[in-house]
Design a protein that fits this description.
The chain is built from five helices and ten strands. It is of the alpha+beta class and 272 residues long. A seven-stranded antiparallel sheet has the order 3-4-5-9-8-7-6. Strand 6 (209-217) and strand 7 (220-227) form a beta hairpin.
């Protein structure tokens, strides 16, 4: 993120004549300051573009070689005391939770008219769904989110843990996949977790992958991983021109007491 450059020019005039007819020195100073501001803004723009390009290159290298790619963690909540927001018509979000079933579980389906996406020229995000116990609720995703702009959704439960959904355009790390991506075309389970696992936990995943499985539902394959430490379940798949990462985690005691529920949440993720 670029820094905001601020310059304040404070000119003290000795009398009204100087106000109407500033000296050449003052004019020269103003021109110099103007050129400085312009140069600073140009440098900022170049820096931002450079960061974006570097990110794309790093991802491409990571998925091609299976080398770990470290960036901001998807579980980078601003703090443990973050407020859970009940479903409602909040700016940029549309409720997608069903009523609880007989077991007290609700299904979230990403609304088709939910705001989000990756700018002009991108196709709409293909909806996804998952199930959570009744006390789980959506958590607002800020534009300044520590997990980056690809965090599409967060949910949390004060008792059990939290989850996030990353939706990333495949063109950011591959040119030849097209608009009908599959997780198999993006890479093997090993390459996918090495390249994208660090985006979830914020560190290299080497030596942390406890299990890796491949599941298939309605003709679509899902890579499922369990990592420790930190305790996290990751489900990866692809659809349209995007990669989906569904991530479920809990603290030590939460993980121990509610692992069965957390695993059930992770296994429920589907692109619809």
């Amino acid at each position: 993120m670029g820094s905001i450059v601020q310059s304040t020019t404070c000119l003290h005039w000795k009398n009204s004549l100087q106000f109407l007819y500033p000296s050449q020195n003052v004019i020269s100073q103003e021109k110099t300051q103007s050129r400085t501001r312009t140069a600073a803004i140009s440098t900022e723009n170049l820096s931002t573009k450079g960061e974006e390009t570097a990110g794309m290159i790093s991802r491409r290298k990571a998925i091609a070689s299976g080398v770990a790619l470290v960036s901001s963690a998807a579980f980078g909540f601003p703090g443990d005391g973050i407020a859970v927001v009940k479903q409602g018509l909040l700016a940029g979000r549309v409720p997608g939770l069903s009523e609880p079933n007989e077991q007290g579980w609700r299904t979230y389906t990403r609304p088709e008219d939910k705001s989000g996406g990756h700018g002009v020229g991108w196709s709409p995000i293909i909806p996804y769904k998952f199930s959570v116990p009744e006390d789980w609720d959506e958590v607002p995703v800020s534009i300044a989110d520590l997990g980056g702009t690809e965090i599409d959704l967060r949910f949390a439960s004060p008792k059990e843990g939290r989850l996030s959904v990353i939706v990333a355009p495949v063109l950011r790390f591959a040119d030849d996949i097209g608009d009908n991506a599959t997780i198999e075309r993006i890479g093997t389970p090993e390459k996918v977790i090495n390249a994208f696992g660090p985006e979830v936990i914020g560190e290299n995943v080497e030596g942390k992958v406890l299990s890796s499985e491949v599941a298939e539902h309605s003709g679509r394959k899902y890579y499922q991983f369990e990592l420790e430490p930190p305790h996290v379940l990751i489900t990866a798949t692809a659809a349209g021109n995007r990669l989906y990462l569904f991530n479920v985690t809990g603290k030590g005691l939460q993980w121990k007491k509610h692992y069965k529920d957390l695993k059930r949440i992770a296994d429920s993720f589907r692109v619809v």
